[in-house]
Amino acid sequence: MLFDIDHVPFSRKGRFLTLSTMRVPGLDGERALYLRRVSGGDERPSLGRLCRVEFLDGEGRPAATRFQLSPDQLVARTGEGIVRFVIGDGERLHIRGENAGVRFHVEGSRYDYVYRTPGGEWCLVAAGENVKFIPRGRLGELAVSGKWDRDRSTDVSFTLSGEGTFEGNVDFFRALPPPEGPGSFEEAHAAVTAEFGAWCRSIPAGVPGQEEAQRLAAYLLWANTVPAEGVLTRPAIYMSKNGMINIWSWDNAFSALGVAAFDEELAFGQFAAIFDHQDASGLLPDYVNDREALFAFTKPPVHGWAVSCMARDNPAFLTPERRAYLRDAIGRQVSYWLTHGRAGNNVLPSYFHGNDSGWDNASFFAEGGPVLSPDLPVFLILACEALANLLEDDPGKAARWLRIADELQALLVGTLWTGETFAARLAADPERILPGESLIQFMPLLLGSRLPAAMCRQLVARLVEGAFITDWGPATESPRSPFYEDDGYWRGPIWAPTTYLLWDGVRRQGGGALAREIAQKFCALANAHGMAENFDARSGRGLRDRAFAWTSAVYLLLAQSLRDEKPVKS
Q1: Residue pair 306/257 in contact by the 8 Å Cβ criterion
Q2: CA-CA distance, 477 to 68, in Å (whole number)?
Q3: For a surface tag, which of 288, 442, 500, 517 has the fewest beta carbons within 10 Å of its beta carbon?
Q4: Where is the Mannosylglycerate hydrolase MGH1-like glycoside hydrolase domain (predicted)?
Q5: pLDDT tens, residue by residue, 269-314
Q6: What is the pLDDT of residues 199-255, one digit of tens each?
Q7: Which one, of 9, 32, 29, lies nearest residue 19 by Cα?
Q8: Are 84 and 19 spatial neighbours (Cβ–Cβ below 8 Å)?
């Protein structure tokens, strides 16, 4: 069962409001359902935790609960009782139940409190989360508790229940509650069902027999979207509403690719949400959320490659306005790496930290940095080509970017080609090859016809013979490597973005059968184990966060490629 509330949060497109299971603070290993508002980023220990949700039987006693998650509602069953949740307009939670009850315990900060508004309604304030909420009962009973203690309320909770059917809703807000009427549970349920149905119908068909995986991927790209608020200038697809509640500046490119075929504006917004915060130097932030843009790290410049992929598949994506925006933004991004990422024009730019590469703790950063890695010049070359295409009305500027691409390629081959593969080297000791067998050595396959045929043949042979492609797909570190770890983050597990980059590189080199094999393995992996952050390369087991947007995006892209491709003869 891929739709499992233990791994997949319940939320809705354009909302911060989320229900998900989390560890209960102070209780080792115990988990509970929490009501959350996933704003403020993933560096805060609370991760937006507002209330622990407790379910009651018909007699008002705590009851064991079974959950059923679907995109339109979360259903909790307590013996003979049932409680249903739907997310309605804005940040509004609708609740309806029978022969049961539900209690929300505020478990927050020092200054949480409850009070009566001038209109007589109860208002609860989660001060540490900067959120207020007003619960309302439409049917049954609403009970609100809270004991005043000097300058705060303790034991704050609210309960919805009834002898038969009960119904209520909760509005979440920062300043003033929304003025419009709350609407009924069934009206909200009908609206969200129609919205998600329309979203699913817009998505290109996938692999026959993998309908649940297709639906989960569609749901996660939809549900992981949050609205423009605070620092977020555009609606953005967070990586997850479990713990990874940011938009990172290479994750965004894959999320954009995943939705570009059916929601161009959302796809463009993924680029702009990051580029709107670009430093004057051209440096992109590591991530953005509604609270901040972080510049302690950055991410690899995949955006030119991604834009070229989108424009190739849908030329209409590049409207004049988008073309101008992306031309300027990507141009500044490339200039940053060429100006501030290297000591001069005759050397390659480098990553200062593993996080800058996006491969965090990969084997090529085992000795620290800065590191000369083969993927960085490849992405810059592809970005230069993208800029030349974006500057089709200015041949002089376009030719300049193509000259820079040629210069970077000469440096790439001259510095990192060993005669057998592309190695990573320390910028301070470029004569020595860094140890490890990372998948990153194959990223130059993305250069397509730019890559000499002999190099291509050697790389593909090394990829196949080096045990990188396991039964489940391409491991980020070869299982034969001494650096390999089953759950080593970037030292072995299968990741969606690297799988897609490798697939595209092999395909650009004419390796249709191998590309199809990579796509088939990844889709089978996601179909069996869901949309995890990464996967054990040997067992296929989903690792870390199990509700990831870029995994969902890559699944949809590769599933569509398998559906659209004619069978390739081996």
Answers
A1: yes
A2: 37
A3: 517
A4: 246-551
A5: 999 999 999 999 999 999 999 999 999 999 999 999 999 999 999 9
A6: 999 999 999 999 999 999 999 999 999 999 999 999 999 999 999 999 999 999 999
A7: 9
A8: no
Distance of alpha carbon 468 from the chain centroid: 25
Termini Cα distance of the chain: 34
In 358-394, where does DSSP find H-type helix? 375-390
Q: In sequence order, which residues have a C-beta less than 8 Å from that of residue 300 and are 6 or more positions away?
A: 250, 351, 356, 357, 358, 375, 376, 379
Interatomic CA distance for residues 438 and 435, integer angstroms: 9
Q: In angstroms, what is the C-alpha Rg of the chain?
A: 25
- H or E element that contains 322: helix 320-340
Decide: 131 and 173 in contact? Cβ < 8 Å: yes
Q: In this structure, are residues 313 and 372 in contact, taking their beta carbons and an 8 Å threshold?
A: no
Q: What is the pLDDT of residue 565?
A: 79
List the alpha helices (DSSP H) in 135-293: 185-202, 211-223, 251-259, 264-275
Average pLDDT over residues 467-493: 98
Q: Which two tokens stand for residue 317?
A: 């994506």
Contact predicate 313/263, CB 8 Å: no
Q: Where are the beta strands (DSSP E) in 107-178?
A: 113-116, 122-126, 131-139, 141-149, 152-161, 165-173
For the chain, the farthest-separated pair of C-alpha atoms sits apart, in whole angstroms, at 78
Report whether 230 contacts 220 (CB < 8 A).
no
Write the DSSP symbol of residue 272: H
- What CA–CA distances, in Å, run from 395 to 126, 303, 333, 375, 401? 57, 22, 20, 27, 10
* 494 DSSP assignment: B
**Could you give the CA distance from residue 197 to residue 461 in angstroms, rounded to a whole number?**
44
Contacts of 566 (CB under 8 A, 6+ apart): none
Instruction: Report the pLDDT value the prediction gives residue 566, as an integer from 0 to 100.
Output: 57
Q: Nearest CA to 456 among 421, 416, 499?
A: 421
Contact 555, 531 (CB under 8 A): yes
Distances (CA, A) of 92 to 52, 74, 133, 182, 185: 17, 14, 9, 8, 11
Cα–Cα distance, 14 to 457 (Å, whole number): 46
